[in-house]
Each structure stands twice: as structure tokens, then as C-alpha cells.
Amino acid sequence: MTRPAEGKPVTVVQPLSLQYGLALREAYRIHMNMVETCLKEVGTTLAQWAVLRAIELQPGASGAYLAAAAFVTPQSLGQVLGRVEKQGLIERRPGRGRIIEHYLTDDGVAQAETGAAAVDAVNSRTLSVLNDDEVAQLIGMLHRLRNGPADGCV
To answer: Is the pLDDT reported for residue 2 higher than 60?
Structure first.
């Protein structure tokens, strides 16, 4: 094995499939760090805002729906719901059977809207390096990838 000369950068050519995965992961990481920072500045977390947003979109939502919509485990959801309830942002009410329904309070609506504005600002900033046609192409390609083969390793 040959070692690179001292102080000389080594260029490694990676297959496109690996470049795609790394680029997507890095773009996602940078974007989500910006989202989390901006949400923190308006007094919430990504998980809390995602739950508030899901309740805003579907008042009376069950815990199972909220966990899926917020990309959290049911265990984590319980902690998030406890925090936002303690902050006076949601109300829990009995539903059918053992289902607990979740509703936003007026403060919860305000927090959901404040968080949405922060996320919209990050999205606009992230996409500002692309023109409108490129944004449409990117979204179209991401939808195609999302709807493509999703199971198996090969």
C-alpha cells in the first residue's frame, strides 16, 4: 500500500451511488440543523413542533397518528406530549374506546404557526441557491425516489 506524500491531498473517486447517498445525507443534516436552531430560537424543538403541526392538520389526532406524523417512537411521543401539555399548548380528551384525542389550545395554535414560519424561512434559505425550475425538478426527483423501490438490499 502506498502512502500519500506529506501534505498532498488524496482524491478518492467514489461511485455515483455512494456520492448520492452521502450528498443527500449531508444536505439533510445541514438543513435539519438549521431547522432545529431556528425552532429553538422560537421556543420549541423539532419533535414538539412536528407534533403541534400534526395536531393542527388533524385536530383530534390519536397518539399513533402523531407518532407516525412526527417521526418519533410511541415512547418519545409520550414525553413530547407531556411537555407540550404542561406548557399549555395541547389538550387531551377521551375519544372512542381507549383512544385519547389531541387538540391545540390557542397558545398551541400560535406556537405551531410561529414554528411553521421558522421552518418556512429555513426552507426558503436552503432553496435560495436554486432557481424555480431547479426547485421543481428537485422536488419531482425526490418524489420519484420516495415512490421507487423501497424494500430489500438489492
So the answer is: no
Domain range for residue 86?
Answer: 18-144
**2 lies in some domain:** no
Contact call for residues 101 and 92 (beta carbons, < 8 A) = yes
Q: How confident is the model over 105-120, as pLDDT tens digits?
A: 999 999 999 999 999 9
C-alpha cell at 22: 452521502
CATH number at residue 29: 1.10.10.10
Do the domain assignments include residue 30? yes
Judge whether 63 and 55 are in contact, CB under 8 Å: no
Spatial distance between the Cα atoms of 91 and 102, rounded to a whole number of angstroms = 6
CA distances (Å), 23 to each of 17, 32, 50, 115, 152, in order?
Answer: 10, 14, 25, 27, 22
Give the span between the Cα atoms of 109 and 103, in whole angstroms.
9
0.85 exceeded by the pTM? Answer: no
Residue 70 has pLDDT above 90, yes or no: yes
The C-alpha atoms of residue 92 and residue 96 are separated, in whole angstroms, by 13
